[in-house]
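[Discussion] Sanity-checking designs against the backbone

I'm trying to build intuition for which residues belong where. Below is a structure token string of 212 positions. I'd appreciate it if someone posts a full sequence so I can compare it with mine line by line.
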């Protein structure tokens, strides 16, 4: 619920923005989070939009996610093209996870022109930066193949294991499926259990239906 204290704080933030061009964007982004968590959504959106196009990648990425998934709370409609622009702006300023979304959208032509080579390039950079979603996605591409990319179990296992070593539950499950196809059942079972223990629901459901 909105309250007078947060409304006053928002007004103070606006005044600070108008009077001080060097206002710390990290502080302002923290204020956005506080307003959002306090259900002051209009104020939160106002601060977030103010931070756009100012070289602050966390704001660009956050707005990109709101456009990508849509946000009823902020009254932001799903718009893949706007999401792509936000992710690209964040990626240009060094936001690794934004590179993952940029790569995904280019790879599958989600709201933008399909560009497999550029999509893979973005995913690879994100993977090098340690983004587990990107590492796992590359594993899936080589696991199942995609367009002109043929399945390659060795590459798939390499990417999955990299994410597994980072503690990423979806890759534990995906690697288990890969290993099961190679009759490496004992190792696959251990990975599925590890993934399920960490709360990954695909692994939970699979273990319940397969290992009764």
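Best answer:
Here's mine. Compare freely.
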């Amino acid at each position: 619920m909105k309250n007078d204290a947060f409304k006053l704080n928002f007004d103070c933030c606006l005044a600070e923005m108008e009077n001080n061009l060097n206002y710390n964007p990290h502080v302002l982004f923290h204020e956005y989070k506080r307003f959002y968590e306090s259900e002051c959504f209009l104020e939160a959106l106002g601060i977030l939009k103010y931070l756009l196009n100012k070289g602050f990648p966390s704001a660009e990425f956050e707005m990109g996610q709101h456009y990508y998934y849509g946000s009823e709370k902020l009254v932001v409609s799903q718009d893949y093209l706007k999401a792509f622009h936000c992710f690209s702006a964040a990626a240009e300023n060094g936001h690794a996870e934004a590179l993952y979304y940029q790569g995904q959208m280019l790879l599958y032509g989600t709201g933008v022109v399909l560009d497999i080579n550029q999509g893979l390039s973005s995913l690879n950079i994100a993977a090098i930066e340690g983004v587990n979603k990107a590492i796992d996605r590359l594993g899936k591409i080589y696991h199942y193949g995609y367009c002109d990319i043929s399945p390659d179990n060795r590459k798939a296992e390499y990417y999955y294991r990299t994410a597994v070593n980072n503690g990423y539950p979806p890759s534990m499950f995906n690697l288990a499926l890969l290993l099961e196809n190679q009759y490496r059942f004992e190792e696959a079972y251990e990975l599925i259990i590890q993934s399920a223990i960490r709360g990954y629901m695909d692994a939970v459901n699979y273990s319940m239906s397969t290992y009764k």
